[in-house]
């Protein structure tokens, strides 16, 4: 492999500012929506005392999971010594940071008392996985920051491998921590499963890579930078394998659940009669989020076309959001089993009378807050690649792998 | 006339000096008398463990006096539906510390009504998951929320197996001194903790129940009425499989 040169993102100024203006307008609208929720309180959202985490959490958790996954491309270069991926490391680290910031911002702005963030940063209950996650997230930002420095500063390069390994291990712990937010909830039928943590890790691999591919293709294409098939086809194959791995985990998760009678009602809710949650599971997550992208990515012709790779990546991301919706909201909508041997006939507080699911219909403000987190991550990424040398000057086939013509 | 005037003046001075003395001394006396009743300076101890025994066989179908009593005492009835909110969504978003539930046994078809509130677990999941420690358990077994450190993340609500907690979704205009509340915090039944600290007996739900279905007391005191009642007859915990050792016990379900 030749020496890699990096260059700032050099698209024409009017186009760059035009993109920023559009993104800025979306952020402004999202900001107004957030202020509206802050000012009025959560009653203007669809969240209630039964479905306590809504659409913002769907986006926030997706972004946090994707953030740790976006770092994998860098890890392939440093930890696993795959030199072809080395030049992709800077963008990988950058996306890991921006996606995490976007996700955390959504999470914080959805708190009942966002102004008490300082309390969350200074008062800890170490029995809570949430408290640990605060350390894991802040630590992740710091470590990836140093990791990027070792990539970009020649004098720090001797620490590159060591910091890379630390970042990789940290990201695995971080995603485990995120998955455990749900895995540790004993009260809810859909969550209490150790399998959720490793499943979140494999989901992060796919969602992070899908976002990475889209940003890489967009930035290179917009500027007319060479992006050869060699690197792209490697990445898309990797995406296909990651999606297949999620598929495996989903199958195992539901099969093990079906083995225990106590989970049958929950499984029936997700797989058969849960309305929107069943539809999102089969159509959103399984079909559009896994089977169709796998079909495209492993198709001999479609898988090699740029349009096919973009389409598959977009579907993987949408499928990921559907997956989060099914896990986060579906898990809460399924009624709590307070009286396992009894049927609830009446209640002064919903309680799933006759097994009815909890009602949740997201408001536009919630969507805007969550979507705003995604747009913020993209905006910061595009500003960073414009200002600093994150993108390789060329990823043409002869630059990436000159020995294999 | 002059004598009369002097007499009046003497009376005035005498009354005024007594009043002044009373003003100066009375608060001290009052404080001392309260202090005698329950020293507020002493920390709550684990010598007590407060709890409830609910006899569902006495609980009348369709009665919700306990809910009304609780909402009055803890100011939940002061909360107003926000302008623009639908009745349906307000029902799902308004806070409830206690609710009535009617259940039917799947096998026998036996129907029972019961009040459901925070179960005041010995090992509360809501306390385990709270990132800041705002959700806490007092030494005397009362599980409650410190509203100064609650950041409104709602993780405790995710973790509670009884859906006992409520989030304040709306702006609050009226705040009762016994249960101050604000938008964006989580709260739940605290066994009328203000009564514990002011040495007032019972709970609002117990006082409101005309059927004698709710019994409040000290589970650690072997001579208390609740301990005697628990010893005497069988009782159950809700979701006993979770091994949370709840402070609220039920009879007749």
Task: Provide a descriptive summary of the structure in words.
The complex is a heterodimer of chains A (405) and B (253). Chain A has helices at residues 13-40, 55-70, 72-78, 83-86, 89-109, 117-122, 129-152, 160-183, 196-223, 229-259, 264-273, 276-297, 306-333, 364-387, 397-400; strands spanning 6-7, 342-347, 391-392. Chain A has 405 residues and is mostly helical. Chain A has a two-stranded antiparallel sheet. The mean pLDDT of chain A is 94. Chain A contains 15 helices and three strands. Chain A is globular and about 70 Å long. Chain B has 253 residues and is an alpha+beta fold. Helices cover 32% and strands 16% of the residues of chain B. Chain B has helices at residues 2-37, 65-73, 87-93, 125-129, 155-159, 193-197, 204-208, 225-232; strands spanning 50-55, 98-105, 111-117, 135-137, 143-145, 166-167, 186-187, 214-218, 248-251. Chain B is globular and about 90 Å long. The model of chain B is unreliable at 27-37 (pLDDT under 50). Chains A and B meet through helix 6, helix 7 and strand 2 of A and helix 3, strand 2, helix 4, helix 5 and strand 6 of B.
